[in-house]
Amino acid sequence: MTPWATAEISETISRDILGAAVEERCSPTRPGSPKALTCEASSRSLRRRGSGCGISRARGFLIFSFFLFFYFPCLIKLEVLEELPETSGKTARRFFFNLTSIPSEESITSAELQIFRKQVHGAFENNSSYHHRINIYEIIKPATATSKDPVTRLLDTRLVHHNASKWESFDVTPAVLRWIAHGQPNHGFVVEVVHLDKENSASKRHVRISRSLHQDEDSWSQLRPLLVTFGHDGKGHPLHKREKRQAKHKQRKRHKYSCKRHPLYVDFNDVGWNDWIVAPPGYSAFYCHGECPFPLADHLNSTNHAIVQTLVNSVNSKIPKACCVPTELSAISMLYLDENEKVVLKNYQDMVVEGCGCR
């Protein structure tokens, strides 16, 4: 596995552990269920924190590849919501998020615009009339006195059905990177809802891009659109430099106890098999033993699952580490006596350990 793939998996795991993307998985369609209660509590807790980066820098998730980074999310509340002229079958709003709360030293890796959509009563999966499309645009040039329509660039789009209440996450990474990394002006987003069923007025209330007249502030704060950015503190250090700072005896000690193949000779006389095995009298089987430390090195032949499990173990000790097991086995040939006392030559598979790894 390449270091970049490891970092990508690690960042994904860090999102779930930190809870910044919990809204994507939470649906209030089954109130009272354990999952719904957990998701609701997590989502409410996040949104009550308000804007801010690094839900806690101390809770940042360690990512190991060639570099060591702290990854954490920034939760940025909607600051400006502006109504745009409504055209036939379309509702549009301008969203503006103030990105100055993101520290200048942070390096943004991804950004998501999260919007809540509420189930429309009577909408069924097989009913094609209950569909609409959500388009997310970056504003390149705002509207002027001479030009009423802003110049925009499409970032993401999705066709959604009205039969479920859930959060939708849209990828707005290119726009946020242009604003932060390249210094281009931040004019905000245009969120456009295209009502494919123009006759159904209820469909227009499906996507919560603005506060309703009778909705209180606390309720709206739980459902208002949110911009979530993911990044690291930019203080990564190459692992080989860290290793140079460690004492040589510690390096040797760590390597000594890491997962590897050890010698094991099996004497058939000792295990009582010499009465039916003619030859050989024994063989070198070898065995695997050792630690699978975090982070998993390349020579440990680890799988994606083992990498993920080790990452989770580093923040939750209840999850066991990956195990040192054989990853490659070979066969041996043996002469033995069958039930008729005849000598038979047979090739037995998976008898010799050729390689070990963390799985």
Automatic annotation (TrEMBL):
PROSITE patterns the UniProt entry points to: TGF_BETA_1 (PS00250), TGF_BETA_2 (PS51362)
Please provide, in alphabetical order, the Gene Ontology terms of the cellular component aspect for this entry.
Answer: extracellular space
Protein name, UniProt field: Bone morphogenetic protein 2
Keywords in alphabetical order: Chondrogenesis, Cleavage on pair of basic residues, Cytokine, Developmental protein, Differentiation, Disulfide bond, Glycoprotein, Growth factor, Osteogenesis, Secreted
Gene name of this polypeptide: BMP2
The TGF-beta family profile domain sits at 242-359
User: Which regions are flagged for Basic residues bias?
Assistant: 237-254
Similarity comment: Belongs to the TGF-beta family.
Indicate yes or no for the key word Disulfide bond: yes
Species whose genome carries this gene: Geospiza fortis (Medium ground-finch)
The UniProt annotation puts the region (Disordered) at 234-254
Per the record, the GO terms for biological process are:
cartilage development; cell differentiation; ossification; positive regulation of developmental process; positive regulation of multicellular organismal process
